[in-house]
Design a protein that fits this description.
mainly beta; Immunoglobulin-like; 2 domains; nine-stranded antiparallel beta sheet; six-stranded mixed beta sheet; elongated
Length: 719
């Protein structure tokens, strides 16, 4: 573990909440058998108010854990680092390269042609983290490197450079749970034509990593050789394949699944049958078949997939939701009607792609309303209204290659805006979905020109986190049974942001004590807590929040550097008896120069971010420590009273025995004379000054869990 400040440019910190507990004696273990956790309460931190605080990633939050024996323990949170994305910790073909460097189809690191020194690209945007369940006795973590913000020349490189993932083997301290990176390797995507903008991800119930490919390249615009999309995909292909002629927009926009084998090697597939859209994240339900998705962007849809077999996403039925608004309170609410888009296998869809199909093979287009054509408005075609007609026999190609467009043609809602993270509360059968920015297409169409206006919710730029109640026995829009017990018939607002009429002195345009622009979501079953990470321009510093689903209390638990986004949120309740929560930040300092900040000197703030971290340069991974285990209960059994050897007026130390590793303190009344730690055999020696005859001393033993018991008073003998 690297326990030092990041001083080089650019840091994206993946922060894992390490939940530690001391080892228990056999007596203590027996005493803990019937103890459980009753409640977990986060005590939030204040928003940063100084340049020093605004520059760093930190927490001053604490956690109260109430146990079934009535005891309450409070745990302060803190964090350390593992590595930065610029650190040469990844091994590729025997060489060490930066962790955030992408590799091409042959597994070679990709060089930045704008670098005068021939340096590699290094992503400044680590995102998703999945801490796998132990595999063959080892812990592994999959991490996304979402994109490259700028190249060495300072020009935008977003979406031009192939993305990547890494696999880190972690060493876990058996006593404390501390994590240290042992080995970092790049994951090979050559079997699936590379990786496109992997945003968030999730861990499947069968212990594989489900990634994402968001902002899929528009296959219609790609056909124009002068278009930005054509240039983007060709540049990507030149970097990845070494040949721009291999560019194909239908290669990207799916759910990649990464399996870590027992030998630590990885295998990758893309699930083409889950549909092609702006995949933010795939979240699998407890039946191991039903999957909910976030579709990021403007004018997007809500999608659900029901696999044919449990733990196998290679074939299934894809659905799109039609939103029927009910109310506008607390963000809004509505019923969901699910439209069956079709059934496919990965092999079937891949065969269609490999046939060389293009957008014009699937649809006829018109520039104006025309008989037989359907008017739609989606994220595709730069958000402009399209008039499309499906060509005969192209239903499957449309459903799985042009999923959002086809859904709109069939009547599904494509008016969601910035749909981001998805999380599952299995016990309560709820799914949580983040709408980062509830505006634009989610407002009432004041022009009357849009093809549909299903959503007419209040404008809340700082966003809303929604909850979806899951039920069985549901039918699709045609009255046919949906073969899943985890279908959402409705959604309603849960956590709502608050926009400000004008910026405050720190440049915030949303209430700093409420969530602004929710993005990453992760739910802890053991803590009954929904964690919410921000991607917000409305907050100068972005935060991670803890929302207790029972008490409805919202607490800030982490602050990331000014201008940075909090990403990669992942709660792992039990890894070998320890629990962790990961949270990253990316692109520190971004857009801070555009904010109206008067509370601190903005120029000094920007200079501090650039000097201490760096703006849009690199990223880092680390973890927060402090919480107890959620599976192994702490030791509530106090140590036996210390056995103290005879003390005389000549004694300059007090010796004896107690519980091993206990801390022993000696008092004269309320005055502490000295303390020391017992050794592994329980023997202790506490140095003190000589005391007068007849003086009463008190010896206290305190174990590692904080339990203590006082011994009987010890009288100082004359000799």
């Amino acid at each position: 573990m690297i326990n030092k400040k990041l001083v080089k440019k650019g840091a994206t910190l993946a922060l894992a909440l390490a939940l530690t507990v001391p080892a228990l004696s056999p007596t203590a273990v027996n005493a803990q058998k019937n103890i459980t956790i009753e409640a977990v309460k986060f005590n939030g931190m204040k928003a940063p108010s100084t340049i020093e605080e605004m520059v760093k990633t930190y927490t001053t939050a604490t956690v109260d854990v109430k146990y079934s024996n009535g005891k309450v323990k409070t745990f302060p949170l803190s964090y350390n680092y593992l590595f930065k994305s610029e650190d040469k910790v990844a091994t590729v073909k025997g060489k060490k390269i930066p962790a955030g460097t992408p590799i091409d189809v042959k597994g070679n690191p990709i060089k930045d042609p704008s670098s005068a020194d021939g340096n590699y690209f290094v992503s400044d945007a680590p995102d998703s983290n999945s801490l796998m369940m132990p595999i063959n006795g080892k812990l592994y973590m999959v991490t996304h490197y979402e994109y490259q913000t700028i190249d060495a020349a300072g020009k935008s490189a977003y979406g031009l450079v192939p993305a990547s993932m890494s696999l880190t083997e972690l060493e876990q301290d058996k006593k404390t749970g501390d994590l240290n990176p042992l080995k970092v390797e790049k994951i090979d995507f050559s079997a699936v034509n590379g990786l496109w903008i992997p945003c968030n991800g999730s861990l499947s119930p069968w212990n594989t990593h489900l990634g994402s490919e968001e902002y899929e390249p528009d296959a219609r615009l790609f056909l124009d050789p002068t278009s930005k999309v054509r240039s983007q995909v060709e540049t990507f292909s030149q970097f990845y394949f070494g040949n721009k002629a291999k560019a194909n927009p239908y290669f990207y926009g799916y759910t990649p699944e990464i399996t870590v084998e027992k030998n630590g090697k990885t295998s990758v597939v893309k699930h083409y049958s889950t549909g092609r859209f702006s995949h933010e994240l795939a979240k699998v339900m407890p039946d191991n078949k039903t999957v909910f998705y976030g579709d990021d962007g403007g004018n997007t849809g809500m999608f659900m997939y029901v696999a044919d077999k449990a733990k196998d996403l290679s074939s299934g039925t894809l659905y799109a939701a039609k939103f029927k608004q009910i109310g506008t309170e607390n963000g809004g609410s509505g019923d969901l009607q699910w439209i069956n888009l079709g059934h496919a296998t990965d092999k079937e869809v891949k065969a269609i792609i490999d046939s060389g199909i293009t957008f014009n093979d699937i649809f006829e287009t018109s520039d104006a309303p025309k008989a037989g054509f359907t008017a739609i408005k989606t994220y595709s075609n730069e958000g402009k209204v399209e008039y499309l007609k499906l060509k005969p026999g192209k239903e499957k190609a449309a459903a799985f290659l042009e999923t959002r467009r086809y859904a709109a043609i069939l009547g599904a809602t494509t008016e969601f805006n910035k749909m981001e993270g998805v999380a599952l509360n299995a016990k309560d059968k709820k799914v949580y979905i983040a709408i980062s920015d509830q505006s634009k297409s989610m407002e009432k169409d004041s022009t009357g020109k849009d093809p549909a206006d299903h959503i007419q919710l209040p404008k809340i730029k700082s966003g809303v986190t929604y909850q979806l109640d899951l039920q069985s026995g549901q039918k699709d829009s045609e009255g046919k049974a949906i073969h899943s017990s985890y279908v959402a018939p409705a959604m309603s607002g849960l956590v709502v942001g608050e926009d400000l009429k004008q910026a405050d002195s720190f440049g915030n345009t949303a209430n700093v004590d409420k969530v602004a622009n929710p993005d990453n979501l992760s739910y802890s079953e053991s803590m009954r807590t929904l964690f919410i990470g921000e991607d917000s321009g409305a907050h100068t510093n972005n935060y991670v929040w803890a929302y207790n689903v029972d008490t409805k209390e919202l607490d800030r638990v982490l602050s990331v550097p000014a201008g940075a986004e909090a990403t990669g949120l992942f709660a792992a309740d039990d890894r070998n008896g320890f629990s962790y929560i990961f949270s990253n930040f990316q692109h520190p300092g971004d857009e801070v120069d555009t904010k109206s900040i008067t509370a601190v000197n903005k120029d000094e703030l920007l200079r501090a971010v650039d000097e201490q971290i760096g703006i849009n340069k690199t990223g880092g991974i680390g973890y927060i420590s402090g919480l107890p285990s959620l599976t192994n209960m702490p030791n509530f059994t106090a140590p036996d009273a210390p056995k103290v050897d005879k003390v005389t007026t000549k004694s300059k130390s007090i010796t004896g025995t107690t519980e091993k590793d206990a801390t022993v303190q000696v008092y004269n009344g309320k005055t502490l004379l000295g303390e020391a730690k017992a050794n592994s055999k329980g023997k202790f020696t506490v140095k003190i000054e000589a005391q007068n005859a007849g003086t009463s001393l008190t010896v206290v033993a305190k174990d590692n869990a904080g339990n203590k018991i006082e011994s009987t008073a010890i009288k100082v003998a004359s000799k």
